[in-house]
Design brief:
By secondary structure, the protein is of the alpha/beta class. It has a single domain (3-364), classed as TIM Barrel. The protein has 17 helices and eight strands. It has helices at residues 3-6, 21-25, 28-36, 45-53, 59-67, 72-90, 92-97, 117-131, 146-156, 168-187, 204-215, 229-245, 248-254, 279-282, 295-304, 315-327, 332-364, and strands at residues 12-17, 38-42, 105-108, 136-141, 160-165, 197-202, 262-266, 289-293. The protein has an eight-stranded parallel β-sheet with strand order 2-1-8-7-6-5-4-3. Strand 4 (136-141), helix 9 (146-156) and strand 5 form a beta-alpha-beta unit. The longest helix has 33 residues, at 332-364. The radius of gyration is 20 Å and the shape is globular. 47% of the residues are buried.
C-alpha cells in the first residue's frame, strides 16, 4: 500500500501543505486525494507568494482584476478566496465521508494583524463570510494577542486553524481557548458538532534554531541533543492533548457533539540535509493527529516512507531530552518566542513581497 495511505490506519490524516490554481483545474488535487489519501489542504502567505509570483496560473485573472481598478490587496483577497473556495468544493466528498472530521482547506488572516486582536477577529469574520463553505478554516497565529481572537471566533462558530505554534505552554493555552469556547457555546444553547479546529504545531524550525544553540554550547555533551528537541517538544504537546481531550471536562462536551481540536504537525519538511527527508513525518505518526506535508516531502514519503506508530513511544526519552536542555541552561521558552516572532515576520515579508508583485502586474495590465 502507498505509505501515505497507510498513515490513515494509525489514525493520522494527511493534509497537503500547498495550493496553486492549476492543480484545482487539471485534476491534480483529485489525484492526490485518490492516490495518496490526502484529506485536506493548508495555505499561508508564503505558499500563495510562490504560487502567484512563480507561475503563470494567475496572469489572466490579475489582468482582469486590475482592469476593474482593484488594488493589489483586493486582487490578493479575490484570488485566494477563489482558490480556497474551489479547493473546499473538491474536498466536499472527503468532508462528508469523514463525517466532518477531514476535508478542510485553510486560509490565513492578514499576517500584519498578528498582534492585533480586534483586527484579526474582523478579518477572520470577513474571510469566513467570503468563503461561505462549512469545510474551510481560518488560520489565526497563536500569538498572545491571537488567543482571545481564537476563543472569540470559535465561540461564534467560525472554524479555526491555529498556526505558528512552537511551545508546549502556548499549545496548552490554545487547547484551553478551544474548550472554553465550546463551553460558552454550550451554555448559550448553541450547537457544538459543527465547530472544527486544529492546532498547528511547527516542528522542523525548532531543530533548526535549537541545533544552532547546541552547536555553540561549551559542553561537549550538548551535541547529543541535536535533532531531538523538535520531536521531543511535539511529543510533550501530544501528552497535553491527551490530558485535555481525554479527561472528564472534555467528555462533558463530547456528550453534546464536540470533537477534539486535533494537533496538526506543520513545518514537516526537513531543513537540515544531514537528517532524513521524512524525519518529521516518520517520528510523529499517531492517532487523532494531522500531518501537513509539502509537495517535495509528500513525494519522498510516498517513495520510501515506513509507516509505524511512533508518536506514543519514547515519551520518557523525549522528557529526558527536554530536561537535559534545561540543565544546559538553554532557554527553550525564549527560543520558541523567537521562532514565533520570526514566523510572523516571515509571513509579513512574503505578503509584502506579493503585494509588490501584484502592484507591478496590475501596472503592466
Amino acid at each position: 500500500m502507498n505509505p501515505l495511505k497507510q498513515l490513515q490506519t494509525f489514525g493520522q490524516s494527511v493534509w497537503l501543505d500547498f495550493i496553486r490554481r492549476s492543480m484545482l483545474h487539471d485534476g491534480t488535487l483529485e489525484t492526490f486525494i485518490r492516490q495518496d489519501g490526502v484529506s485536506g489542504m493548508t495555505s499561508n502567505p508564503s505558499i500563495f507568494e510562490q504560487a502567484i509570483a512563480q507561475s503563470n496560473d494567475y496572469t489572466e485573472a490579475i489582468a482582469a482584476l486590475a482592469g476593474q481598478g482593484k488594488s493589489p490587496d483586493a486582487i490578493y483577497q479575490t484570488l485566494t478566496v477563489e482558490d480556497v473556495r474551489q479547493a473546499a468544493d473538491i474536498f466536499t466528498g472527503v468532508y462528508r465521508e469523514s463525517e466532518r472530521r477531514d476535508g478542510y482547506v485553510s486560509l490565513e488572516v492578514d499576517p500584519r494583524l498578528a498582534y492585533d486582536t480586534t483586527g484579526t477577529v474582523e478579518d477572520a469574520r470577513r474571510l469566513w463570510a467570503a468563503l461561505d463553505r462549512p469545510n474551510v478554516m481560518i488560520k489565526v497565529p497563536a500569538t498572545r494577542e491571537g488567543l482571545p481572537a481564537i476563543r472569540g471566533l470559535l465561540t461564534e462558530g467560525i472554524n479555526v486553524n491555529v498556526t505558528l505554534l512552537f511551545s508546549v505552554e502556548r499549545y496548552r493555552a490554545v487547547a484551553e481557548a478551544y474548550i472554553a469556547a465550546l463551553e460558552t457555546r454550550l451554555a448559550r444553547g448553541l450547537p457544538l458538532e459543527n465547530v472544527a479546529s486544529v492546532a498547528s504545531f511547527f516542528v522542523s524550525r525548532i531543530d533548526t534554531l535549537v541545533d544552532a544553540l547546541l552547536a555553540r554550547h561549551p559542553c561537549a555533551e550538548a551535541g547529543a541533543l541535536k535533532g531531538r528537541i523538535a520531536v521531543a517538544s511535539a511529543k510533550a504537546a501530544y501528552a497535553v492533548y491527551q490530558e485535555m481531550f481525554h479527561g472528564e471536562r472534555f467528555r462533558a462536551l463530547e456528550a453534546h457533539g464536540a470533537r477534539p481540536q486535533r494537533l496538526l504537525w506543520a513545518s514537516t519538511s526537513t531543513k537540515n540535509p544531514a537528517y532524513s527527508d521524512v524525519k518529521y513525518i516518520e517520528a510523529l505518526i499517531g492517532p487523532e493527529t494531522v500531518t501537513t506535508i509539502p509537495l517535495k516531502t509528500l513525494a519522498a514519503y510516498r517513495d520510501h516512507g515506513r509507516p509505524a506508530e511512533r508518536l506514543t513511544s519514547g515519551i520518557a526519552e523525549a522528557q529526558a531530552a527536554l530536561a537535559r536542555l534545561a540543565e544546559l541552561q538553554i532557554d527553550l521558552q525564549a527560543a520558541m518566542q523567537q521562532l514565533e516572532e520570526e514566523g510572523v515576520q516571515k509571513f509579513i515579508h512574503a505578503f509584502t513581497g506579493l503585494m509588490h508583485t501584484l502592484e507591478e502586474a496590475a501596472a503592466r495590465a
